[in-house]
Design goal:
Largest interface: A-B, 24 and 22 residues
Helix content of chain A: 25-40%
Radius of gyration of chain A: 19 Å
Order of helices and strands of chain B: EHEHEEHEEEHE
Strand content of chain B: 25-35%
Shape of chain A: globular
Order of helices and strands of chain A: HEHEHEHEHEHEEHEHHHEHH
CATH class of chain B: Alpha Beta
Largest sheet of chain B: 5 strands, parallel
Strand order of the largest sheet of chain A: 7-6-5-8-9
CATH architecture of chain B: 3-Layer(aba) Sandwich
Oligomer: heterodimer
CATH topology of chain B: Rossmann fold
Number of helices of chain A: 12
Strand content of chain A: 5-15%
Number of helices of chain B: 4
Chain lengths: 312, 182
């Protein structure tokens, strides 16, 4: 059994059974990280291009390690060091890369829909590593893997996602993924950062942090993007931290076995107090370790098997 | 393609006797259990390895460690299979370096699974020796690989398939040859 599509663009289009397959495969990949020699020959002779046209350390490194542990040749192209700065269009960049016959192109782009456009134009498998405010599917999958690993299951769990819901592709991918896997989701944040009509995604909205985190199994804190302040969506960082920052005091309202998650990079003292980020509730570093496993699983599932038939 | 059963080649006592004999042969060859480890190849090789370990314990009173190997990531035919194999976990909870590792599988056929298993084991360390135990050797090797312990040699035609059914997975213990339905 495999995935239905040639690409991974969004969690929204995945079947629960496909998510299950990705998580199971990732769990089996984790063993490789514990070896002295971290390499298996599975993707020998395959080429993965990391096309990162937005800054990223964690996700790009994670994809690069995932590809290398599976023996693929991994090439990194970053925005500032590419012909993009010379004015080449995304489509031209992609067509030129395609002429070098990569098997997979991992793309991060500031515009929602960029991976979708590449997926239609290129034969290579496209993995979305974050596109604008649309989706960040590999982040949601590694989050689901981390939750399943810690709690033993996903079905029936309750999660709260707190912060800038409106601009967060992490939130969107997680909402789709969690709902598909039978979890209930509450989102919370300043009203300016909660998109109107978000309830249509099957989530509840809470207007206070304490209300959101009471009785949930998972609290996912989102990074506050500083540019939101310039856009006058929040009055000040200090006020945001006071109303929406998770501190140890506030955490008292949550369950004793709650998991604290964050997609990184953390603004310590803004959305997350340092003593919470480093507490025993925090699984932030497990998320990072699981990120490599999830990306290995996706590379294996998308380009490890029989090449897709032309036109399929 | 549907298949029909042509013959039963081993029944429950037959499988048990073959495994008992293999356990004795392993002990004889290795002169006891120190440094010995069994590694079963998923899926049915794992159950067979556990059964051999139980027999070794019954004979010598010593627990021999058992590991589980998934060879999916080492296959040479991933690009040709219509159905992509599902990856399962490899669990070898002991260092293989310096040990005598006995690989255990249900059916030895082309030898390609064993080639993959040898590569996989050697990525985990440097065993002193690797041996191979199989319940059925059905011939038709495509690589220079031979078993050290064989439950039963079974001459077959390529169009036939050999199915090892074990109670852990199939609720029954028997080995059958199947041929394509006419």
């Amino acid at each position: 059994m495999g995935l239905r599509g040639k690409d991974l663009i969004e969690v929204r289009g995945l079947e629960p059974a496909e998510i299950e397959l990705i998580l199971d495969t990732a769990e089996s990949m984790k063993e490789i990280a514990s070896r002295a020699i971290k390499k298996v020959p599975t993707l020998r002779g395959k080429t993965v291009v990391n096309l990162f046209l937005e800054p990223s350390t964690r996700t790009r490194t994670s994809f690069e390690i995932a590809g290398k542990w599976l023996s693929a040749d991994v090439v990194n192209v970053s925005g500032s060091a590419s012909s993009v700065v010379k004015g080449e269009t995304l489509m031209d960049t992609a067509k030129n890369l395609e002429a070098m016959s990569p098997d997979c192109v991992v793309i991060r782009h500031a515009m929602a829909g960029a991976p979708h456009m590449l997926a239609r134009a290129l034969r290579a498998a496209i993995i979305n590593a974050g596109d604008g405010a649309h989706e960040h599917p590999t982040q949601a999958l590694l989050d689901l893997l981390t939750i399943r690993e810690k709690k033993g299951h996903l079905d029936g769990l309750k999660a709260a996602i707190v912060g800038d819901i409106a601009h967060s592709r992490v939130a969107r991918s997680n909402i789709y993924g969690m709902r598909k896997m039978g979890m209930t989701v509450t989102v919370a944040g300043p009203p300016t950062l909660i998109p109107p009509g978000v309830e249509e995604l099957g989530v509840k909205v809470a207007h206070r942090l304490e209300e959101a985190i009471r009785d949930v199994d998972v609290v996912m804190m989102l990074r506050l993007q500083q540019e939101r302040m310039q856009a006058a969506l929040i009055p000040s960082l200090r006020e945001y931290a006071r109303l929406w920052g998770l501190t140890l005091d506030r955490l008292a309202a949550a369950r004793e076995d709650v998991l604290i998650m964050h997609p990184g990079p953390v603004n310590r003292g803004v959305e997350l107090a340092p003593e919470v980020a480093d507490s025993r509730y925090s699984v932030i570093l497990d998320q990072v370790a699981n990120g490599v496993a999830v990306r290995m699983a996706l590379l294996y599932l998308l380009i490890g098997g029989k090449p897709a038939e032309a036109g399929a | 393609m549907s298949a029909r059963e042509k013959a039963q080649v081993l029944d429950e006592p037959g499988i048990d006797r073959a495994l008992t004999r293999i356990a004795h042969e392993i002990l004889e060859r290795s002169e006891g259990t120190p440094g010995l480890a069994l590694v079963g190849i998923r899926t049915r090789g794992v159950s067979l390895a556990r059964r051999i370990a139980e027999k070794l314990e019954a004979i010598e009173g010593v627990k021999v460690p058992v590991g589980t190997l998934d060879i999916t990531l080492y296959r040479d035919d991933l690009g040709d299979l219509a159905e992509q194999p599902v990856l399962r976990e490899t669990e070898i909870p002991f260092p293989v370096t310096g040990r005598t590792v006995v690989l255990v599988d249900d059916v030895l056929y082309t030898g390609r699974t064993i080639r993959a298993a040898l590569d996989a084991i050697m990525d985990l360390g440097r065993p002193r020796q690797i041996q191979l135990a199989v319940l059925i050797d059905r011939g038709h090797r495509e690589l220079p690989i031979r078993p050290d312990y064989v439950g039963k040699n079974l001459p077959t035609a390529r169009r036939e398939t050999v199915q090892v059914l074990l109670r852990e997975h199939d609720g029954t213990d028997r080995v059958v040859i199947q041929e394509p339905a006419p």
